[in-house]
């Protein structure tokens, strides 16, 4: 069992802690549920039901606890590690381990940068959206992928778009970002202008990709599910990137 300190929220708000628990322990802890405990059973869906502050707390907890579950042993020498600094550091118990000499990224929770981009057609009135087979029916979203070592954000955007859809990208503009604790990503949101329009989907990456006219996107977002298009929920950065493009006030 791991207990971590998440810190205080705004002034005069509770101090937050998180604990990972098996089902038996969780049942016992639920006696405290009316005292401010929260037990997400399906984290993705439950996070979308929370307000912004609570979602941030649960996201932080899930990300750090997932890191603890993977780093019980030192990546440098294989020895057991111990929890320190309220759960935000793990130190090797082998006094000879070189991870104890200096600052090493194996000792702290990791964050993996991911680019997520809304690709805009050269005519400015269409956007490129893709879908994976695991998406709900008719849902399309922004393309996304991990930043590779040595890449800039712009290079990662161009590479990922071309790999997944075959579309080439020119100018890239950073818009906003969103932590995504599934398990520990930072989603770097961008708009990108396409320099080609022919689509050739890499089916190992995504199931489909299409250009969608602005009006179809507007209809899907504000007038209920469109016959052929469902947009990700408003809590996601993909939704906000799309909203920003169509000229409606977003939360970015």
What does this structure look like?
This protein has 252 residues and is an alpha+beta fold. It has two domains: 3-107, no CATH class; 112-245, Nucleoside Triphosphate Pyrophosphohydrolase, CATH 3.90.79. The chain has six helices and ten strands. It has helices at residues 23-29, 43-49, 52-70, 153-165, 214-222, 237-245; strands at 3-8, 15-19, 81-84, 89-92, 112-120, 126-131, 143-146, 169-180, 185-194, 208-213. Strands 5, 6, 7, 8, 9 and 10 form a six-stranded mixed β-sheet that branches. The chain has a two-stranded antiparallel ribbon with strand order 1-2. A two-stranded antiparallel sheet has the order 3-4. Strand 5 (112-120) and strand 6 form a beta hairpin. The longest helix has 19 residues, at 52-70. The protein is globular and about 60 Å long. The protein starts with a strand and ends in a 7-residue tail after the last helix.
Give a short synopsis of this structure.
This protein has 252 residues and is α+β, with helices and mostly antiparallel strands.
What is the subunit arrangement here?
single chain
Distance between the termini: 36 Å
| Structural domain tally | 2
CATH class wording of the largest domain: Alpha Beta
Structural class category: alpha+beta
Shape descriptor reads globular
User: Average pLDDT across residues?
Assistant: 86
Gyration radius over CA: 21 Å
Which band does the percent of strand residues land in?
25-35%
How many helices does DSSP assign? 6
Largest sheet: 6 strands, mixed
Q: Low-confidence parts lasting 5 or more residues at pLDDT below 50?
A: none
Named at the architecture level, the CATH assignment of the largest domain is: Alpha-Beta Complex
What is the CATH T-level topology of the largest domain?
Nucleoside Triphosphate Pyrophosphohydrolase
Order of helices and strands: EEHHHEEEEEHEEEHH
Can you count the beta strands?
10
CATH homology-level superfamily of the largest domain? Nucleoside Triphosphate Pyrophosphohydrolase
Helix fraction, binned, reads: 25-40%
């Amino acid at each position: 069992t791991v207990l971590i300190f998440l810190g205080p929220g705004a002034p005069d708000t509770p101090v937050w802690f998180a604990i990972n628990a098996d089902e038996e322990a969780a049942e016992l802890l639920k006696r405290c549920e009316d005292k401010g405990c929260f037990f997400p059973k399906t984290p993705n869906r439950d996070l979308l039901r929370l307000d912004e502050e609570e979602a941030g707390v649960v996201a932080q907890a899930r990300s750090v606890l997932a890191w603890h579950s993977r780093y019980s042993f030192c990546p440098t020498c294989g020895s057991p590690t111990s929890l320190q600094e309220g759960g935000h550091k793990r130190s090797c118990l082998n006094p000879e381990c070189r991870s104890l000499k200096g600052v090493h990224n194996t000792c702290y929770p990791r964050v993996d940068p991911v680019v997520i981009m809304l690709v805009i057609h050269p005519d400015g009135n269409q956007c490129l959206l893709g879908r994976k087979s695991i998406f709900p029916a008719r849902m399309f979203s922004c393309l996304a992928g991990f930043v590779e070592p040595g890449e800039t954000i712009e290079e990662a955007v161009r590479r990922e778009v071309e790999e997944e859809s075959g579309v080439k990208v020119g100018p890239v503009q950073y818009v906003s970002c969103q932590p995504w604790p599934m398990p520990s990503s930072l989603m770097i949101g961008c708009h990108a202008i396409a320099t080609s329009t022919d689509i050739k989907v890499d089916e190992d990456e995504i199931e489909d990709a299409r250009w969608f006219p602005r009006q179809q996107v507007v209809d899907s977002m504000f007038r209920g599910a469109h016959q052929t298009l469902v947009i990700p929920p408003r809590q996601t950065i993909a939704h906000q990137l799309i909203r920003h493009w169509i000229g409606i006030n977003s939360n970015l």
